[in-house]
Design a protein that fits this description.
By secondary structure, the chain is an alpha/beta fold. Helix content is 36%, strand content 16%.
Length: 386
C-alpha cells in the first residue's frame, strides 16, 4: 500500500474531513426519530459530543451547563482552574494581551504551582450541580491526581498527552503503568491521544474505557507545524476504529473511540462518526459559547510549554449560547451552530437510525465537495465560502 515518494521510500495517502463526503442512503429517516446517544463503561449519554479539556473552553460553570444539556465537558486539572482560586482575572489578562505577547504571557500564567485542594473543590462544584464531572491530566500526574479526583467524586478520568503510547521510555522520571492504573481506578479511564491501529489495540488490551483519536488537528494546536507529526483525522479514525472492531470480535467487549480535534462544523462531526467514531471531542466550536471562560479566545493545551510551545492563542469570537451551538436555533450560516441538529439530519438522510449504523454508511473521496457550485459563496465569503 502507498506510492513511492522517492527512491525506495513509499508513503501512504491519508485523508482529512474536507476530502470526503457521505453518500445518502436508500432509506431516509425522520431526524427526530434517530438515536444519537452513546455509551461508555455501561453508562449511556444523550449526545456524542464532548467539550475538550482546554482552559479557554471548560471551567466549572461551562461543565455544569454542558452536563445539563446532555453532553460531557472535560476540566483540565493542570490548567488555570487548579492554579488560581479566582481565575476570571487571569482570563481577562489573556484576552487583553497583544497577539505577539500572548504565548509569553500564557507561559508565565502556567508557571504558578497547582493547588491540589482546588482539584477537589472544582470537582465538588460540578458534582453539586448534579452533572457528571470529567477531569484530565498528563500521564506523569495521573496517579496522584487520579486518586484525588476519584476521592472527590469524579465520574471519568482522562489521561491525555500529545502522543500517548502504552510503552514510554524514560530514565529521567517514572513512567505510568497504564494497565495497573486502569485496574486501580474505580471510575472509567479515557486515554489519549493516538492515531494508529497498533497503539489503539495495545491500549484496548489493558482495560481503558475509551480512547481519544487525533494528533495535531485542533484549531489552536501547532504540533503538526512544530514537530511535523500527525495523521489526518479521517484516516486516523478509520484505522483506530478497525482496531476497536477487531478487539470486539476477539473478546466481545466494545470499547468506544472518540475523534478529538479538527471539527468545527456539524458536517465534520457527521463525517467523524461515519468514519467509525463513537463520539467526538470539540474545542473551538465551544470556545464561541457565551458560557466559555476564554472570552472568545482559546489556546492549545501545549501552549504553556516552557521551551517548545505547541499551540497558539486564537480568536474565534463569541457567537451564541452553548444551547444554540448544540441545539440551535442557528443564527449563523456556516454550520457552527445546532451541531446535534446537523448530526440528526445527516443520519436521517443517510438512513442511519443510530450511531452504530452511522459508522457503516458509504464514504467517498470527494475533493470538490466543498467547492463544487459554490463560486458565489466563495466570492461573497458567506456560508461554505467563509
Amino acid at each position: 500500500m502507498g506510492v513511492f515518494v522517492g527512491r525506495g521510500r513509499k508513503a501512504r495517502r491519508c485523508y482529512g474531513f474536507d476530502e470526503i463526503a457521505l453518500v445518502p442512503g436508500d432509506v431516509t429517516i425522520n431526524p427526530n426519530e434517530v438515536d444519537v446517544s452513546w455509551e461508555i463503561d455501561g453508562k449511556r449519554y444523550e449526545i456524542p459530543i464532548i467539550a475538550a479539556a482546554m482552559d479557554g473552553v471548560v471551567d466549572t460553570r461551562f461543565a455544569i451547563a454542558m452536563g445539563k444539556l446532555g453532553g460531557l465537558a472535560v476540566l483540565n486539572l493542570e490548567g488555570i482552574q487548579t492554579r488560581y482560586e479566582y481565575p476570571d482575572e487571569v482570563f481577562e489578562k489573556i484576552a487583553k494581551v497583544k497577539y505577539e505577547d500572548s504565548t509569553q504571557i500564557i507561559q508565565e500564567i502556567y508557571q504558578k504551582e497547582i493547588d491540589e485542594k482546588l482539584i477537589s473543590k472544582r470537582i465538588e462544584e460540578i458534582k453539586a450541580a448534579g452533572v457528571p464531572a470529567i477531569v484530565s491530566s498528563i500521564p506523569n500526574k495521573a496517579e496522584r491526581f487520579g486518586a484525588i479526583a476519584q476521592e472527590a467524586g469524579a465520574d471519568i478520568f482522562v489521561v491525555q498527552s500529545t502522543v500517548t503510547t502504552l510503552k514510554h521510555i524514560s530514565t529521567e522520571y517514572r513512567t505510568l503503568d497504564f494497565e495497573k492504573f486502569c485496574k486501580n481506578m474505580k471510575i472509567p479511564v479515557i486515554v489519549g491521544n493516538c492515531v494508529t491501529y497498533r497503539v489503539t489495540l495495545s491500549f484496548l488490551e489493558v482495560g481503558v474505557s475509551a480512547l481519544l483519536i487525533g494528533i495535531g488537528p485542533g484549531a489552536a494546536c501547532t504540533t503538526r507545524g512544530v514537530l511535523g507529526i500527525g495523521v489526518p483525522q479521517v484516516t486516523a479514525t478509520i484505522d483506530c476504529a478497525a482496531a476497536r472492531d477487531y478487539y470486539f470480535k476477539k473478546t466481545g467487549k466494545y470499547i468506544p473511540i472518540i475523534t478529538d480535534g479538527g471539527m468545527s462544523t456539524g458536517g465534520d462531526i457527521c463525517k467523524a462518526i461515519a468514519c467509525g467514531a463513537d463520539a467526538v471531542m470539540v474545542g473551538s466550536a465551544f470556545a464561541r459559547a457565551t458560557e466559555a471562560p476564554g472570552k472568545g479566545y482559546h489556546w492549545g493545551m501545549a501552549t504553556p510549554h516552557a521551551n517548545l510551545p505547541r499551540g497558539t492563542r486564537i480568536f474565534v469570537g463569541t457567537t451564541g449560547s452553548l444551547e444554540q451551538i448544540l441545539y440551535g436555533p442557528a443564527e449563523l450560516d456556516d454550520g457552527s451552530q445546532n451541531l446535534v441538529g446537523a448530526l440528526r439530519t445527516s443520519m436521517g438522510n443517510l438512513g442511519a437510525s443510530n450511531i452504530r449504523e452511522m459508522q457503516m454508511v458509504e464514504i467517498i473521496i470527494a475533493p470538490a465537495i466543498k467547492t463544487e457550485g459554490k463560486i458565489f459563496q466563495k466570492a461573497q465569503r458567506v456560508g461554505m465560502g467563509k
